[in-house]
Amino acid sequence: MMKFKHKGVSYAKWGYLFILPFFASFLVFSLIPLADTIRYSFFEYYRSGIKEIGPNLIGMQNYLSLLKSDMLKYAGNTMIMWLIGFIPQIVIALTLASWFVDARLKIRGQQFFKVIIYLPNLIMASAFAMLFFTMFSTNGPINSILMSMGIIHERIDFMGSVLGTRSLVGLMNFLMWFGNSTIMLMAAIMGISPDIFEASELDGCNSRQRFFRITLPLIRPILAYTLITSIIGGLQMFDVPQILTNGQGAPDRTSMTLIMFLNNHLKSRNYGMAGALSVYLFIVSGILCFVVYRMTNENDPDGSRRAAKKVKKAGK
């Protein structure tokens, strides 16, 4: 009796064919430039007038020169302006997300409010910075309104003070991104089973206990993602302070960020220093993201390890 073998048809090759354009684009536009950036960071490579110097291999000299420069000062500026915008952003985003999801509050017009809070995220950062530059200038409408109301008697130079400039940058970053964070956190809270909230209500939990003991622990993955993306975005802060201070980081370079510093090296065509600074940014981003991930992700979600440790200590 003859047996017929049916040869299976494999469609795996079509999958590889469809993902090939992505990997080709990643190789050409991301991986090769990244490798070149790291390579240039070990070379002396810049232009002096019309004369091109290098590339000459100098090892770690670019990295050491950056440590002796004002890089750490600009890193501090970047962190301060990021915190000014991020702290109210995450607090208000969590509050709004909890309110919108809570069915007991019966908030009307939720869709309208969601659209309104998300709209600033659709505006280009450059347009947003130009708007604030016009509004908060010495002869701008904000000063005019405050003077007409009798609140101030002399015009305030918002962008002439350290606190004013940093506060404006933080305020713009807050307004542009808190809507996006709110929508993401709302999705995370909606993913929690309603039975958990009903059980907590029957057990007598109040709103504060329900938020800190149930909601926050269960949305840790999305919260970690929000923190990590915000840190990366904060380290890449460029367009808002660049336009607001005309690229000078005024006053006295107190609003100069790391990417503005990097941009200055690129404009002067000092590719070696720019490459070294890019590597520093990559390392700092990786370390901060790892720390945030470890802090916001629980290795013992069900509490079994803690319970085992308590039993072990009690046995001793």
What is shown here, in short?
This protein is mainly alpha-helical and 316 residues long.
Number of strands: 2
Strand content: under 5%
Shape by Cα distribution: globular
Radius of gyration: 26 Å
Class of secondary structure makeup: mainly alpha
Give the topology string: H per helix, E per strand. HEEHHHHHHHHHHHHH
Q: Helical segment tally?
A: 14
Please state how the strands of the largest beta sheet are arranged side by side. Answer: 1-2
| Low-pLDDT residue intervals, each spanning 5 or more residues | none
Mean pLDDT, all residues: 87
Reported for the largest beta sheet, the result is: 2 strands, antiparallel
Q: Which properties best describe this structure?
A:
MetI-like; mainly alpha; 14 helices; 316 residues; transport; single chain
Describe this protein's structure.
The protein has 316 residues and is mainly α. The chain has a domain at 70-261: Orthogonal Bundle (MetI-like fold). Helices cover 68% and strands 4% of the residues. It has helices at 12-40, 61-68, 71-101, 110-118, 125-135, 141-148, 162-190, 194-202, 207-218, 220-235, 239-244, 258-267, 271-296, 304-315; strands at 43-48, 51-57. It has a two-stranded antiparallel sheet with strand order 1-2. α3 packs antiparallel against α10 (220-235) and α4 (110-118) crosses α7 (162-190). The relative contact order is 0.13. The mean pLDDT is 87.
